[in-house]
Each structure stands twice: as C-alpha cells, then as structure tokens.
Amino acid sequence: MLRSSDDRGRGRGRGRESASREVCSFSIKPYIPGERKREMGGGVEGPLFETKGGKGRIWYKLYACSVFVGTCLIWVYRAIHIPKLGEEGRWIWLALFGAELWFGFYWVLNQSARWNPVYRRTFKEMLSKRYQDKLPNVDVFVCTADPMIEPPAMVINTVLSGMAYEYPPEKLSVYLSDDACSELTFYALLEASRFAKSWIPFCKKFKVEPRSPAAYFKEERVGPKDGLQAAEWEKTKSLYTEMENRINDVVKFGKVTENIRQQHRGFLGWNRATTSRDHQAILHILIDGRDKNAIDDEGFTLPTLVYMAREKRPYRHHNFKAGAMNSLLRVSSEISNGAVILNVDCDMYSNNSETVKDALCFFMDEEKGHEIAYVQLPQLFNNITKNDIYGSSLILYNKVDFHGLDGYGGPLYVGSGCFHRRDSLCGRRFDETCKAAIQVNDRNMESSASTLEERGKSLITCTYEDNTEWGKEMGLKYGCPVEDVITGLAIKCRGWKSIYFNPSRMGFLGVAPVTLAQTLVQHKRWSEGDFQIFLSKYCPFLHGRKRKLKLGLQMGYSMYCLWAPCSFPTMCYVIIPSFTLLHGISLFPKVSDIWFLPFLYVITATTIFSLWEALLIGCTMKRWWNEQRMYLFKRLTSYSFAFIDTILKHLGLKMSTFVVTSKVTDEAVSKRYEQEIMEFGLPSPMFTILATLAMLNLVCLIGGTKRWVLDEGIGLFGSLLLQFVLCGSAVLINMPVYQAMFFRNDAGRMPTSITLTSVALAMLAYIVPERYFRFPRISQ
Ligand SMILES: O=c1ccn([C@@H]2O[C@H](COP(=O)(O)OP(=O)(O)O[C@H]3O[C@H](CO)[C@@H](O)[C@H](O)[C@H]3O)[C@@H](O)[C@H]2O)c(=O)[nH]1
Ligand SMILES: [Mn+2]
C-alpha cells in the first residue's frame, strides 16, 4: 500500500512506511461470540444498544407513491406538449421541462431519507457493568485555525468540556491542533491545563452539566442553594472568570507578555519569525496523564492534554482541517493511541458528559459493534433563535435525514461530534479479521514526555507525508472542501457501517453562523465539496455501487452531492414563470384543464407535507417559512457559485480554499440576529443575485396583475393562475429583501449600490421585447 520508505533522520531507525503502518496497527483478538459475556460473569447479558424503526411508514409510502404518480403525469404533460421545432418559445418550454425532470429526480433521491428511518438507544449501565476496567483509551481531537475568529477562550471551553467527560481520566486524552500556530491559543491552553485541576473535580462531584465552564456559568446565573456546593460554585466561577479575563486581555493585546513567557518552556517555540504559515512543528504535552504529579485538586489523575501545531511552510499545501487531523492521528498514536477518537470543531463543546459511554455502547456491542466505523451525533448549536432565520440549525438533517440514512448503513461523517474507530479512520478495510472487540491498549509507559514530544514532532513535519498514503488511503482525504463527507464515504466503501445517535440530552453544541453572508459562504463550501465528490471517483452511484453500498445510501449521499446542480433548475423556475407572467404567456395548463390536477396535487401535497413534518419536529410555522426562504437563497447563490467553481476547478482554473466560519460577531450584528432581522450590510455578488431576482419577481407580479386587471380580464387569470402563485410566493418569500432595500436604515440593510443595480436589471425585464418570449398559447 505504501510506497517508498527512507530512513532519513527518523530517530527510531525505522522507515516512514513502517512508521505509518505502526500508527495504524491494532491488537486484534479473535471474536468468539459469547466469550466476553462468560468472561464478565452473569447478570450483564444482552446487547448494548437497541434499534427501532420509524412509525407510520406505510402512510408515508402511500403519500410518496401518489406524489410520484403526479410527477410522472407532469412530465407526460410537458413531453406531449413540447412546441415543434421552429415554433417560438420552444426553449422556454424545454428549460421548464428540464427543471421539472430534475426536481422529480431529486425528489426521488430524497425518499431515501424518509423511507426507512431508524432510532437508536444505548444501555450505558450495562457497558459499565460489563467492561468496568476494560474500557479503551479515548482520544479527543479539537481543531482550531484562527484565534481572531475562533477566540482562544471559546476553544479552551471545548477542550475543558472534553477533559471533563465522565470517563476514567487515565484513559482520556485531549489534543488541540492549532493551525494558526498562535501563542495566544497556546497560552489559553496552558491556562486551561491549570484551571482543569479545579474544574474537573467540581464537575464530577456535583454532576455538573454542561461541562463547558462558559456555558455552565452562563446557564446558572444564580448558583446552587445548598451550602457546600454554593461555596465551591462561587470559588470555581471566580477562578474561571479570572482566567477568561486574563486570556481575553492577552488576546486583545495581541501577544503574550514577557512575564507569561517565563511560565512555560513551550513559549520558546515562538520567535519573531514565526507566522501562522511559516513555522516549525510545535508539540507540547501540557498534562501527562501518566505522571504521578498530574493530579487535580482532589488528588485524582488528570486526563492528558496536548498542544500541537504541525509544521507549515508557505510553499507546502497544508490541506486544511484534513491535514491537521492526520497529524493528530500520528501524534496521538505515539502518546495515547486511543482506539476510539472523538473529533470536534473548536466551537463544539460537549453538552453531555455521558456521550463517550454512549458511543462505546455501539463500538463494544458484541453482536454488531465490530462492523461500526463511526458514530455521528447531530451538529447542534446554542445560538439558534426561535424562528431560525438562516435555517442554520440544520434541523431537518438532524431530525429526519440522518435517521433515514442510518436505516441504510449510516449517516455521513460531518466533521464534528463524531466518534471514530481509529483503525477504520486510518484506512483499514472491513473484513473477517475485524471481528474483534475494541481492545484496551496500554499506554507507552517507558518513554518520557519529552521523548514522546520529539518523536511526535518528527511525525508532523511538512515532508512526512511525501510518498505515503496519508490523505489518500490513510486518514482523512485531501483535496476536497468537505474532507469529512468524503472520508466517511470512503470508510463506508471499505465495508464499514456507521451509526447516527441522537440522544435526548444533546451531545454537542456549537456556534452557528449568524449572518446571511456567512451562511451562504458555508453552504457554498459544503455544496462545492459534495458536488466534487459526485464528480470524483467516489461518486456514490458508481464507486458506491461497486462497493455494495445499499441503494438507499447511494441515493442519500447523492442527495447532498447534488445540491450544487439544483441551482440552475431553481433559477429557471424563479425566472421563467414570472417573466412569462409579465408578458401574459401561459406555461401551465388552465385551471379547467384536466392536466391542471397533477400540478395542483404535487404542489399542495408536497407543501402540506413539508409543513406538517416541520411542525412535527417542533418548528414554528414561521421557522418553516424561513427554512423555505433559505432553501431558495442557497440554491440561487451558494449552489450556483459552487457549481461554477467546481467546473472551473475541474478545468484547472481554480485552487481549493477553506473559508473558516467566524465564531465571533460584533454587537450590533448579533443584536439584529437576536431580533431575527436579516443581515446584508456589505456588498457581495451573492446579494446582487438575490436582490435582482427579488426585484424581477416584484416587477413581474405587478406587471402581470396590471395586465390582468386592465387588459385581459379573468379568463387570462385562469390560464396564468399557477404563474401567479409561483411569482406571488417568490415575492412573499423575498419580503425581507425588499425591506432591506427600501425600508431599513440600519447598518445591516442592503448596500445602496446593490439596490440600484438590481432595480436597473429588473427594469430590463420590461424593456426586453416581448417577442423573445412569445409563446403559442396551447393550453387556452
Ligand atoms: O485550515 C484549517 C481550516 C479549518 N480548520 C478547523 O476546521 C473546523 C471547521 O471549520 P469551520 O469554519 O467551523 O467550518 P464549518 O462549516 O462550521 O464546519 C463543518 O464543515 C467542515 C467541512 O467543510 C468540517 O471540516 C467541519 O468539521 C464541519 O463542522 C474548525 O474547528 C477549524 O478550526 C482547521 O483546523 N484548519
Ligand atoms: Mn463550524
């Protein structure tokens, strides 16, 4: 599997090849059903988790079939009414037909998410009884990339919540990868390593939740009543606040003071020449769990804590988060070598201290555990407002889609809140020999911390991965903006399964984007990455099928992979019906026509279903409406940009980038977010598109109504009804855009330049001569 191996300067006298292999090696014990249970003694039999199917599926399937029939009838109508070659308006008809074919096809793909959902439940008590001291090492990987938009104080809260898991601390290690190589973040982590000594015992003694101190102290503004806890609460809170202030002061100042520099030899790693893009590898074991002196205030062992900044050079591509994760995989294999790895983004703190045990219930289950590569928890956020104006809670994916995919072999790996089996993440194929329980592998007790650091550093140099399979067959894959999704898919194609676990107490909470621009840019990255996967050799329908992924899962992955191409059909549907409405040209059957029925049925049935589904999972009506708007906005902007960029990349005209989502916001912006006022503010080509299309629809609706009222009367309305409905809904959904253009004067309103441009462009709709759009009025 691995090519060339040379021994140059590798301290241990072994080649890159063997080093890489060893990183992924595993002690495997043959699986003998029943053996483990006997070993453990009676009273603890039974599976560690349970799976249940969704209810009322038969009704859903009936509904879906009826919609499908309706869709087919729409296609038939379009097909038999295509204007003849040479007739005017043929291309408009064909464009609409193409869009409807696409929507129908895409709707079929979406059925994979609802056809066969499953729900999981774990039995943690059983796990603890049965495995007690035989639990595996667990490594937590946190990635950060920029101290300005990912504040160190937030990052260490995530770290602390990971250290405070209800799990034997000698088996728990937390690694922070800092792609910014910032001494500010290092300093914050150093502070966290000290604060952990009082935070962890406090959490364990009083069963505190959540275990991110910032989140906990924010929730419990007034401390507990009972005496002892109240005193400790006060003390811990002030310790935390003081630390947070120190960190924020240093961050504000922009660098650590000489005084702080003296506190730890680690700061020697930074000098004047160090920049985030040009520096040597830095690796520090801030807490060594093996160390007898590494104890908390109550005398218990502390979990291991490690800071890592892999080597960066301006002329070497670093592969973003995937590169960081692969470095973490290697470094951790030297230090703690946890058989299970938890990956979280730096904003995603643990909100549930039992989650590690939940995850282990899946991996350690005697019956099915050996085939599970990863357990994904939902990505949830703690800054979602009531009506979720940007649809950033991803609630439909969390509450519907992923349960559906789980029924076909498992959800996507979405980068954060995911537990991995180390060997499957490192590239191992699933086969008969994998039928082994996860093993307790002891830590390397001989080597000193500084030896481990030196060895670790040699694994994270820029050249380490040259001529190895890292980024290809090993670890996370490179070259894709959604390294998580493609890696998860590759793991599935190697024969593994995954699990979606959605516990009632949320497992992780992060920071969702709070402006329209951020949301659209994030979705551009996602849809671009997903579409790249579809065009790559990992295309779910080709590679997936070859690798025997279930059809449902192939469809499920494609549902995301084909976000980007949804853009143009949507654009057709936003532009053409309105445009032709303006000119009084009918594109849909008349109300009295029998062909009107399939359109009516498909549109109302799918709308009512989607509303009903949203209400069922706890959305408000307004939230559902906001969600529809965001669907539209993403398709018109993020997805179309992603589509174009993907094509350019394929032609070699563009490089891949990773725009990190900001986790901080200025006060005025976040106030508007709280009030659910849509944020525009700075000019962006995406806003120009949105504003122009919004204006276009408004002009068309007004023009169409005028024509109807003044010129042609009620008969015309009958043949244009659907176009009125489509154009009218577009106008309704665009309300916030008009407001931002004409009725607001806060800093978040639409930039004037965009307003002017869009009004001018929309006026063109009036000027463009009608004959370009004239159309035989077949259905009249
Ligand atoms: O060069 C980089 C860029 C990013 N990151 C980290 O990657 C994480 C995700 O970045 P973010 O900007 O928050 O992206 P999101 O869109 O919110 O993240 C989702 O989508 C990404 C893929 O597009 C995945 O990497 C993430 O895990 C997933 O949560 C953050 O912790 C970053 O610090 C790095 O470590 N190095
Ligand atoms: Mn994020």
Question: Could you explain how this protein is built, in words?
Answer:
The protein has 780 residues and is α/β, with parallel strands linked by helices. The chain has 2 domains: 16-25 and 131-512, Spore Coat Polysaccharide Biosynthesis Protein SpsA, Chain A, CATH 3.90.550; 57-113 and 548-772, no CATH class. The protein has 28 helices and 13 strands. The strands form 3 sheets. Strands 5-6-4-3-7-11-9-12 form an 8-stranded mixed β-sheet, sandwiched between helices. The protein is globular and about 90 Å long. The termini are far apart. It binds uridine-5'-diphosphate-glucose (UPG) and manganese (II) ion. Residues 345, 347, 510, 661 line the site of manganese (II) ion (MN).
CATH topology of the largest domain: Spore Coat Polysaccharide Biosynthesis Protein SpsA, Chain A
The set of bound ligands, ions and cofactors reads: uridine-5'-diphosphate-glucose, manganese (II) ion
Q: What is the top-level CATH class of the largest domain?
A: Alpha Beta
Number of strands: 13
The major sheet is characterized as:
8 strands, mixed
Mean pLDDT: 90
Strand content: 5-15%
Strand order of the largest sheet: 5-6-4-3-7-11-9-12
> CATH homologous superfamily of the largest domain, by name?
Spore Coat Polysaccharide Biosynthesis Protein SpsA, Chain A
Low-confidence stretches: 1-42, 776-780
**Portion of residues in helices?**
40-55%
State the secondary-structure class.
alpha/beta
The multimeric state of the shown protein is single chain
Given the C-alpha coordinates, what overall shape results?
A: globular
